[in-house]
Design brief:
This protein is an alpha+beta fold. 46% of the residues lie in helices and 15% in strands. It has 12 helices and 10 strands. β2 and β3 form a beta hairpin. α1 packs parallel to α4 and α8 packs parallel to α10. Bound molecules: flavin-adenine dinucleotide. The site of flavin-adenine dinucleotide has 23 residues, from β1, β3 and α12.
């Protein structure tokens, strides 16, 4: 730990600039129009595998860039920092860790090279259900083995990018909860090909932001037995294994949002003249922006520490969770400071602030609510009694 630095290497700085430059080819009007139409960024997303960015975490032997969590974090942060929305493609980065760590050699050889080139998209992650929410072990979707197949039945809620993805990582119960020792046993992960999967109905949900989110209905959907990832019944542990990566990457989405808000607010506060001077000269406008900037910088330190611990193969749970919480809160505060600085224009679509504000809000709630991050810190970091 003593040699851990928080400055980026030359290569990481170059990556940051390159991602930002690529993203700048997609101007605010592009994202605004998609938001208005609730459409997926079909032109932007393929640029990322083309540049090797979405394959950052895939090892070279499977056609990826073999980079670390810090690089993956930089990529997502810069997409949001540029004014775009990394939610269109961020899941691939944190889902594929489960396949890498627990998938069979055959699964890795079959899927990872194609995911690396962008030929296949693994953007859908099916965990949440209408009746279980944050309490994942209570999920009711079942996958029952019948010969060489599993038959899937149940409902999923808020599952994003299903219509834009070829593959989905699905968590389902393979052994009823009353037949297992621990409620975390008996859940299994499947890597399923959802292209034209019979028995899967997808109902798009119109959300506050453009997020390609859906309700799913599995009605005797049959998937090949080889779709199982790792051992049957161990799926919950596999998903938990991927949580630190998810937290670090989502924190990076938020940091990018926060930086965008601050730059936008500073620029506007410097040029908008009211009562004969730039509004940014007033402490009532300036201080919330300065405060949000400090919070973003502090959250960045925690995110960077978490990513570096992760890349060093050291435990990073507390840091990854704290980074997710701090970055989501800091981005939200930066969003409010940005809206306040813009006055009425903060609510006008053509300024993009209201769009980013809606997008940034999500990360206080999903993929895990900040309440549950506090519960994790209270219980696992500070040793206080369990609340649930
Ligand atoms: C736009 C969007 C996209 C999403 N995409 C996906 C996806 O792709 N895949 C997927 O699987 N899921 C996805 N989700 C679901 C998301 O992960 C869940 O919404 C989230 O995990 C919370 O579950 P819930 O909404 O059922 O809330 P609930 O679990 O019902 O919780 C409701 C509220 O109660 C609080 N609460 C519950 N228990 C406690 C407790 N013990 N202590 C303190 N507070 C508590 C929560 O923090 C929350 O504020 C998405 C959600 C959204 C909004």
């Amino acid at each position: 730990m003593s040699d851990m630095t928080f400055t980026l290497t030359d290569e990481q700085r170059a990556l940051k600039t390159a991602v930002y430059e690529l993203c700048k080819q997609y101007p605010p009007e592009y994202w605004r129009e998609l938001d208005a139409q609730r459409e997926y960024p079909e032109a932007f997303v393929p640029e990322l595998p083309k540049a090797g960015y979405l394959a950052a975490l895939i090892p070279p032997e499977y056609g990826g860039a073999g980079l670390g969590m810090m690089e993956a974090a930089i990529i997502l942060e810069e997409i949001n920092h540029s004014g775009g929305n990394a939610a269109a493609c961020h899941a691939q980065m944190y889902i594929m860790g489960t396949v890498l760590r627990h998938g069979s050699e055959a699964q890795k050889k079959l899927y990872l090279p194609k995911i690396a080139t962008g030929e296949l998209r693994l953007q859908a992650f099916g965990v949440t259900e209408p009746n279980s929410g944050s309490d994942t072990t209570k999920l009711q979707t079942t996958a029952i083995k019948k010969g060489d197949r599993y038959v899937v039945n149940g409902q999923k809620m808020f599952i994003s990018r299903v219509l834009q993805s070829d593959l989905m990582l699905l968590l389902a119960r393979t052994t009823p909860v009353d037949q297992v020792k621990k409620k975390t046993d008996g859940l299994s992960v499947f890597l399923i090909d959802i292209r034209g999967l019979k028995g899967l109905e997808v109902r798009p949900l119109r959300m506050m932001m453009n997020h390609s989110t859906n309700a799913l209905f599995f009605d005797n959907a049959e998937v090949p037995a080889e779709s199982l990832v790792g051992q049957e019944g161990k799926g919950f542990a596999y998903i938990l294994d991927g949580m630190n990566a998810e937290r670090i990457l989502v924190a990076s989405d938020s940091l990018g949002d926060g930086r965008w808000f601050i730059e936008k607010a500073v620029a506007y506060a410097g040029q908008r003249v009211i009562f004969g001077k730039p509004i940014g000269a007033n402490q009532g406008v300036q201080f919330p922006i300065a405060k949000a900037h400090m919070a973003i910088e502090a959250a960045d330190l925690m995110r960077t520490k978490a990513a570096k611990l992760f890349d060093a193969g050291l435990p990073s749970g507390p840091e990854a969770n704290m980074a997710k919480y701090l970055a989501a809160e800091a981005a939200w505060d930066a969003g409010n400071a940005c809206i306040d600085a813009h006055g009425g224009y903060g609510f006008a679509e053509e300024y993009d602030v209201e769009r980013k504000f809606r997008e940034a809000r999500l990360y206080k709630t999903a993929p895990i609510n900040n309440n549950l991050v506090m519960a994790y810190v209270g219980e696992h970091v500070l040793g206080m009694p369990r609340s649930y």
